[in-house]
Amino acid sequence: MASIAYRAWESGILPILPDKPGQEEAERHRLARAVEFGWQHAISAEIDGVVVGWCSRAPSRSYVPFLFVMPELQGHGIGAQLLSRMETILELEGAERILLETPADHVRAVRFYERQGYHILALKADARAGHDPFASVHLEKRLRPYSGIIEG
């Protein structure tokens, strides 16, 4: 799953970032740790038994930090299906909204989320010490939380 995330990051986000030594290895490590510690909150899409995309949510929150699909399979509805299923999971848990963010310059991703019914909440700059200023678009979608009884 980490390799899918890295390949998607490399093809979609890396080209819009300023060139910075070591950023590719740092991102590879960050994504590997995200998979290692967040896999229990993730769902995946498979084709012929091979994982081709995945989506995860933050523990105890209706926030989606990761949605990745193999670059060569993007644009075929896999990401939309993963996101829709994650929304359903959150609705069943009673969530009223779902939040996510993406780089502001990643226009393709922003448009994708808008097509899925997300609305832009804010444009925020990440100016943490030691980091280049980085603008991200924060998006939200209202959900229809389930309020009935779930029987197992």
UniProtKB/TrEMBL annotation:
Which regions span the lipid bilayer?
none
Q: Which CDD domains does the annotation name?
A: NAT_SF
What's the protein name?
Acetyltransferase YpeA
Q: Does the keyword NADP apply?
A: no
Limits of the N-acetyltransferase domain: 1-144
**Does Transferase count among this protein's keywords?**
yes
Q: What Pfam families does this protein's entry cite?
A: Acetyltransf_1
- What keywords sit in the KW lines? Acyltransferase, Transferase
Report the EC number(s), separated by commas if there are several. 2.3.1.-
Gene3D superfamilies annotated for this entry? 3.40.630.30
Molecular function (GO) terms for this protein are:
acyltransferase activity, transferring groups other than amino-acyl groups
Lineage, highest ranks first: Bacteria, Pseudomonadati, Pseudomonadota, Alphaproteobacteria, Hyphomicrobiales
